[in-house]
Design goal:
Layout lengths: L1 H15 L11 E2 L5 H8 L4 E3 L4 H7 L8 E4 L19 E5 L7 H4 L5 E3 L4 H14 L5 E6 L2 H20 L8 E5 L2 H11 L2 H15 L15 E5 L2 H14 L10 E3 L10 H6 L3 E4 L11 H10 L5 H16 L3 H6 L5 E3 L2 E5 L5 E4 L2 E5 L2 E5 L2
Parallel strand pairs: 2-3, 3-5, 6-7, 6-8, 8-9, 9-10
Antiparallel strand pairs: 1-4, 2-4, 10-14, 11-12, 12-13, 14-15
């Protein structure tokens, strides 16, 4: 994240050819720091980027003096740190000690509080909106038994019910599958698709006729989409199970949808083979075609072999810095957006930065962008 912040800062330096016109940056380590220490370090700073951890946000924000502009890198209601950073023990805070030297003074509201995070719930909600807009009404939702994916599962279903209520439907047609290992994953999918029941009926017929029955198990035909909230490793397993369970002679193809939490770009091309035809949403920064090729080349030179998580956090830091001078307009005019590395960003009435990520599909062992 710090690398992303600094990359955005020096991009500003190059664009303006005047470092003195930019804010001075000061990073504060909040690891094991109490609120009094942070307030002392912040001093009369007027612009703060951070904190990252939810508990630090909750402690620091109420204690800040009037007149401070904050872009917190988490939300009060978010229970997981951005990017699933369970092992991260510290974060950095960006500030500008003097608000008279920067264009931020003119562009940011005199006192504002905004929240920007890589909330998994946002992705689940976006996926529900997208699938519903495509006309699908009877999905199977498959979710791993972990806190992260259960939260995404709950958010998806809540949004799905809200969308159905708008159409005055009494019931949201969702089939749920929860799993904790490969065995329960396979069993859950076959049960949800009615394949297990089909096999039972075949066995009963064979028993009654006492003869071999030439058969082909059939899956349900009312299912029109499958949604997966699972790790990249589990998603690679479930997609072949789904393909094997669907009717091979049925012309209808049931699309599989996932979020960025199911994608890992470090595993090589074999994973794309197992994820064939999977639709997903992810940051523009990780898509094969985006508008920052020069920056991508510079980042690859400066930090070789960044893994998927590091790339996401770099993009998060880069966008957080670039949002600072735009927050005033984004807060005032909610219809405005900022096209960032992490997605198309806007600000809602709660001051939360909302991300909309592009759609992609795996075809021929490659990631291909989709036009909505």
């Amino acid at each position: 994240m710090k690398n992303g912040i600094m990359a955005a800062y020096y991009a500003d330096v190059d664009a303006r050819q005047n470092e003195r016109a930019l804010p001075r940056l000061r990073f504060i380590d909040t690891n094991n720091a109490d609120t009094d220490y942070l307030l002392e370090q912040i001093g009369d700073t007027k612009f703060i980027l951070g904190p990252l951890l939810k508990e630090t946000v909750e402690q620091l924000i109420p204690a800040l003096p009037v007149g401070v502009n904050v872009l917190a890198l988490n939300r009060f209601e978010t229970t997981e740190e951005p990017g699933n950073l369970d092992s991260m023990q510290q974060h950095n805070e960006l500030s500008t000690p003097n608000d008279n030297d920067s264009e931020l003074t003119q562009l940011v509201l005199p006192t504002s509080l905004n929240y920007f995070g890589l909330a998994p719930e946002d992705e689940a909600k976006q996926l529900a909106d997208y699938i519903f807009s495509k006309g699908y009404r009877a999905p199977i939702v498959i979710a791993a038994q972990s806190n992260l994916y259960q939260r995404m599962d709950a958010t998806f279903k809540q949004q799905w019910r809200a969308l159905n209520n708008k159409e005055n439907k009494q019931r949201a047609n969702i089939t749920s599958v929860t799993f904790n290992d490969s065995g329960s994953l396979r069993e859950g999918i076959t049960q949800a698709l009615d394949v297990a029941q089909s096999n039972e009926r075949i066995n009963q017929i064979e028993y009654m006729t006492n003869d071999e029955v030439y058969n082909l198990p059939r899956s349900r035909r009312d299912i029109d989409a499958i949604v997966a909230f699972a790790s990249p490793q589990d998603t690679e397993l479930l997609n072949p199970i789904i393909e094997a369970s669907l009717n091979p002679y049925d012309a209808k193809q049931v699309p599989v949808y996932a979020t960025s939490r199911s994608m890992d770009y470090d595993s090589g091309k074999n994973q794309w083979r197992d994820l064939q035809n999977v639709h997903f949403i992810d940051m523009p920064w990780l898509m094969p075609e985006h508008n920052w090729k020069a920056l991508e080349s510079e980042v690859a030179t400066a930090w070789e072999n960044q893994n998927t998580m590091q790339k996401r956090l770099f993009a998060f830091g880069y966008d957080a810095y670039q949002l600072l001078p735009e927050l005033g307009m984004l807060n005032t005019l909610n219809y405005l957006t900022h096209d960032g590395l992490t997605g198309t960003l806007s600000v809602n009435d709660k001051g939360e930065v909302i991300r909309k990520q592009p759609q992609a599909i795996i075809r021929n062992e490659e990631v291909q962008m989709l036009m909505e």
